[in-house]
Amino acid sequence: MESNSKTFTRCRADVDLGALEDNVRALRGLLPRNVSYLSVVKADAYGHGLPEVVERLAGCGVDLYGVANVTEAAAVRRIDPRRPILLLSALLPEEDPCLARYNLTATVSAEDEVARFDEAGRRAGRRIPVHMKIDTGMGRLGVWHEIAGALYRKLAEARHLELRGIYTHLSSADSDPNFTERQRLLFLETLEGFKGLAREELLIHADNSAGLDTFQPERGFNAVRIGLAQYGVIPGRHARHLLTRVELRPVCSLHTRVTLVKTLPAGTPVSYGQTYRLQSDARVAVLSAGYGDGIHRACGNRGSVLIGGQRCPILGQVTMDEVVADISGAGAVACGDQATFFGRQGGTEMSIREFSDSCGTIPWEVLCAITSRVPRVYSSSR
Ligand SMILES: Cc1ncc(COP(=O)(O)O)c(C=O)c1O
Fold first, then answer.
1. How many domains does the chain have?
2. Is 152 a catalytic residue?
3. What is the pTM of this model?
4. For 111, 213, 241, 367, which has the most beta carbons within 10 A of its beta carbon?
């Protein structure tokens, strides 16, 4: 037998780059040709593995990338020397020289950032591309919309900056259409107040995956910033408009292996803290994954895993390296069998949404929480 550690993988995340490519092409196909597609690849491409994802994306029609910080940006730049990379988060002052070094686009939310990035451009002897961000109700990054005009004027005067885009971030696109419309309106009204703005030369964007469902290019939006949907997950519970036209395929599935099968008598407590006690004699399987792999403790006593194509309840607390599942209803189960937290087993599927609900969290967090102990195993189905 080979002594390659991957041969002995206990918990693994399967990443289907063919599904990623199909999703991006399908999402791209929803948009008019003049609309730019910014692919969000921060947080290790939502846990899928940044280098592999970017390599694939570079070949399938994305126009620019979005990352959180300069470390991620440098990793993207190593793979794609050409496409713009927008830093979606703010920079620390010591990171400013990286803007020129890696040819990055900064987000500007405040006047002191204008001064800093202008100085970084002056020192590098070139103009730093920037997108201005306007806060229309997210309450996070961006200049508050009521005072955005002053920041716009500062930007227009900065000799070593080049304004390439203006954007806002929707806080509730998957849950509150009225608030979303208010944000879009505030954003567009704010732009109206900018004297001499050449909108057609800029990227004007607001929409994340959830916003894409009601994307409105006719109002002047000419770019979208897509994360979750390209990884095959619909952000809200249901698409209602544009997103009903695409069939997205989940890119990531998370599996582990059964390492022990045994029968326990009624009344036995299971796992730390005795939070579960067997009501009757039961067959249980010990699975080789726990919170050390990114399985949220919150799914203990709430979630299920697929074993042999059946939903098997998780018994007791999730521990660092093990989870116990009730396999009484699962037919023959043996050491080495596969258990699936989310993904397909034969004709049965456990969605990331179902798993994240059982963890009391959201699909974004489930994907980002998969730890480095879990090898990503790449394939490409079409
Ligand atoms: C500024 C910004 N735009 C776009 C996105 C992509 O969001 P989603 O994954 O919902 O498409 C994010 C993700 O957190 C973000 O922070």
1. 2
2. no
3. 0.96
4. 367
